[in-house]
């Protein structure tokens, strides 16, 4: 029986550091019958040049360019141009085990599932402190048991019939839960996490904006954002009134809650991985992430303007 053609759709935005390794790992796949559709989403670096050079060398690679519209819109465009009967959605900063495409799509090819999601996503750049402190990228146990709304492989006909991705959801626009849950598959890939605090802040600004736009998180997050504005306003008023003792007490309470949150985030990782460096790095990284969430959401609420982001991040 002939192998069906797979269409691997990759949205790209400023991925010059990682795109080459991503494409090398796809070229080395054991499942050979696939095409790669690179949708450049208005990159400002060398990403389009790298993609164009690869397309010249490998007839399976196609480059499509568009003005910046976000990863969801880029994936939708790639899906519409796909020639394969099965779509695979991955990121440009991923690297793949040679068996990845075959393992990921097997249940779909055999007619046992509409779509699948991988359950082994490891850190590609774990030699960098902030990258390994960001996350271990372990897929939660409930996803391994029941599946996920994030489809990495899906039948093209089902995807198009569903209307595709909701591009307005930003960070959350890769969710296809309207198709149900993707079947979990033990396919292995490696994801590059933010390597610097600047990258972490930029990514978190994007997530903060997305938390406001996403209907599932909007109310809860806006309440938390309003509470933070009120708290900062109260502190400013106390300072203006020279109520320094009350100001210090309020700041102390806030610091205690923040300290408890940071300890809660760091302790499980310190215990699980026995890395003393996490005592410092994880709390610092979470402070940067919280600042990014707050800045991104606040900017969107106050100005309604888009928050520029340096790269796409799904981890």
The side-by-side strand order for the widest beta sheet comes to: 3-2-1-4-7-6-8-5
Give the CATH level 1 class of the largest domain: Alpha Beta
Q: What is the overall shape?
A: elongated
Mean pLDDT, all residues: 89
Which secondary-structure class do the elements indicate?
A: alpha/beta
CATH architecture of the largest domain: Alpha-Beta Complex
What is the count of DSSP helices, taking H or I runs of 4+ residues? 11
End-to-end distance:
37 Å
**CATH homologous superfamily classification of the largest domain:** Spore Coat Polysaccharide Biosynthesis Protein SpsA, Chain A
> Per DSSP, what share of the residues sits in E-state strands of 2 or more residues?
15-25%
Summarize the amount of helix as a percent range: 40-55%
Q: Uncertain spans, ≥5 residues at pLDDT below 50?
A: none
Molecular structure report:
Helices cover 50% and strands 16% of the residues. The chain contains 11 helices and 8 strands. β2 (34-41), α2 and β3 form a beta-alpha-beta unit. With 315 residues, it is of the alpha/beta class. The chain has 2 domains: 6-191, Spore Coat Polysaccharide Biosynthesis Protein SpsA, Chain A; 197-303, no CATH class. The radius of gyration is 21 Å and the shape is elongated. An 8-stranded mixed sheet has the order 3-2-1-4-7-6-8-5, sandwiched between helices. The model has no long low-confidence stretch (mean pLDDT 89). The longest helix has 30 residues, at 244-273. α10 crosses α11 (278-303).
């Amino acid at each position: 029986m002939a192998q069906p053609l797979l269409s691997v759709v990759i949205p790209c935005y400023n991925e010059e550091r990682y795109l080459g390794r991503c494409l090398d790992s796809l070229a080395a796949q054991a499942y050979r019958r696939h095409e790669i559709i690179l949708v450049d989403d208005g990159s400002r670096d060398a990403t389009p040049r790298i993609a164009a050079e690869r397309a010249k060398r490998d007839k399976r690679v196609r480059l499509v360019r568009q003005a910046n519209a976000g990863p969801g819109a880029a994936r939708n465009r790639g899906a519409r141009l796909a020639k394969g009967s099965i779509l695979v959605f991955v990121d440009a900063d991923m690297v793949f085990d040679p068996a990845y495409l075959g393992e990921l799509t097997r249940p779909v090819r055999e007619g046992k599932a509409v779509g699948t999601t991988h359950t082994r996503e490891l850190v590609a750049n774990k030699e960098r402190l902030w990258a390994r402190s960001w996350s271990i990228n372990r897929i939660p146990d409930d996803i391994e048991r029941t599946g996920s709304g994030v489809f990495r492989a899906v039948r093209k006909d089902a995807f198009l019939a569903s209307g595709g991705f909701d591009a307005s959801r930003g960070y959350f626009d890769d969710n296809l839960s309207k198709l149900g849950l993707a079947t979990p598959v033990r396919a292995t890939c490696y994801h590059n996490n933010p390597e610097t605090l600047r990258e972490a802040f930029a990514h978190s600004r994007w997530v903060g904006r997305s938390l406001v736009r996403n209907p599932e998180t909007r109310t809860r997050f806006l309440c938390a954002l309003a509470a933070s504005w009120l708290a900062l306003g109260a502190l400013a008023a106390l300072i203006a009134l020279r109520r320094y003792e009350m100001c210090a007490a309020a700041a102390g309470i806030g610091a205690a809650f923040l300290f408890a949150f940071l300890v809660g985030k760091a302790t499980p990782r310190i215990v699980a991985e026995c890395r003393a460096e996490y005592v410092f790095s994880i709390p610092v990284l979470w402070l940067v992430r919280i600042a990014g969430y707050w800045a991104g959401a606040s900017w969107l609420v106050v100005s309604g303007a888009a928050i520029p982001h340096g790269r796409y991040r799904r981890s």
